[in-house]
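Usage

Read records sequentially. Each one opens with the input sequence:
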Amino acid sequence: MPAQTPMLIALPCGLSAGGVTTWALRLSGELSQRGYACALILHRLRAGDSPIAATIPPGVRVVDLTALPAMDAVAGDVSIFVPHYARAVESLRGQGPVAISPNLMGDCFAIAAALTQTMPDAVRTIGWCHLDSDYDRRVLAHYEPILHACVGVSDWIVDSLRRSLPARAADAHNIPYGVVVPEACLVRPPLGGRPLRLVYPGRVDENVKRISALVHMVDALTAAGVEHELTIIGDGPASGAIDAAARTRPSMRRLPPVTPDAIVHALDTHDLFVLPSRVEGLSVAMLEAMAHACVPVVTMVRSGAAQAITHQRNGLLIDAGDNPTHDATPQQIGQAMAAAIGAIEPGQLSALARAAWATARERYSMQAHADRVCNLLERVARMPPRAWPTTRACSFTSTNSGGSGTVPSDAASRLARLLGSLTGRHVLLHGTGRHTIELGEVIAAHADRIAGFTDDDPSRANATMWGWPIVSPDQAASFGATDVIISSWLHQEAIWARRAVYERQGLRVHRVYAGVDDASAAPVQSGVSPAQANSPSARAVSAAVRA
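and closes with the structure output:
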């Protein structure tokens, strides 16, 4: 029997609550049970992240880097982490190489790139794409030289990876997540005489999870006379807003993060799992709900949902207006969810529940997932080494405006040209992340027209950046702004699709980068008319996807 390839899984956000952490814990535990040497590298949590209430599986080694700076605080200088990774590889290594899985953050891949420059024979790099996002695809495209394989967790993501990296299409693998599925389908008490119980376990976030839609869902169910109870389990930047809404809505409550066993109990005691996300990969929480016969009611985003759910057979799919020029509002999503829930016929719920459980058991078991991963580990172990070019910096982020994985090399000149054209205007920049930070010198040079920043993250509102205020998008006009610049390369098209929040206030919205279909055209585009909104370039996905 050939030697089993060891696996090193890196969690750059530590044991933060979320699907990727759950996946890493369960996969490492399953591999360890099968006799594979497996280790987790745990970094410090990012500011604002909540830890998951879970234990490390038996037999899984831990490399604890929580005493070091958070990965998002080192601005691409990952040298402090590299020796720890190198020692972890050597400790796992037997006769063959170690499969390393960087995750979530570009600079986590930068560490793997650095390892390939000094110990290429010892490592085989597998890049997982966990989310249907331009950022995730851009990271994999950037680090393609060291990737022995890339994994998409859904059919849609795998197809997008093959389009993004056509020369590596054979190395893109479809491995959906797996969950622990009970042997028998749980049968719940009939609805007669009790309310319909709904649950959302996950990050309390507006930007990705669109959590405020659940408030509108509760209002619509109440107005329709549907007796119900909603339990939100988790924490995040929108927790304050959800708690405030719950104070005036008796059928709604939020609980802090709980242990995985407590999540299982919640799924077993609720009827419906609700998920109003803007984007997903293949939601682990949704698969867990299906495994416990808790019927999923989820937005029909591009990735994952329709792959697992057939509408009105094993769950309910909610139209989310999934195209780049229209993003349904939280109110529209909440009302649509309530309408679908209210239309469930007597006796239909138990049939939906059993079909959901059967789907999880047949297609998304932990055993099937681990089988696919084991096959991939042995495949990459037989492949020749791949090393990062010594002529390129390993880092994904940067401390200056010279270009990086998140900021193209001509970004500074593009932004300077755009800001230069807005003399006499009052400009807000949308986004306070790496793109904005790395272009700080350009912004400072045009300080006379900068009014501040906006950000989708509610936790950033009322804070400051370089002395300028950060406001929520719906407050832009009241702050005296006339224009908004989307300060993002990787997420530009997603933000552009939601620009109506500014245009309703009479503001002009500008893009720094051309769309895919007009990449050779002028780099600055403003959004002011329906005709532009329906143009081919507005419908195109970000150029970063195909870079």
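Summary fields computed downstream for this record:
- Residues 516-547 have pLDDT under 50 and may be disordered.
- The radius of gyration is 24 Å.
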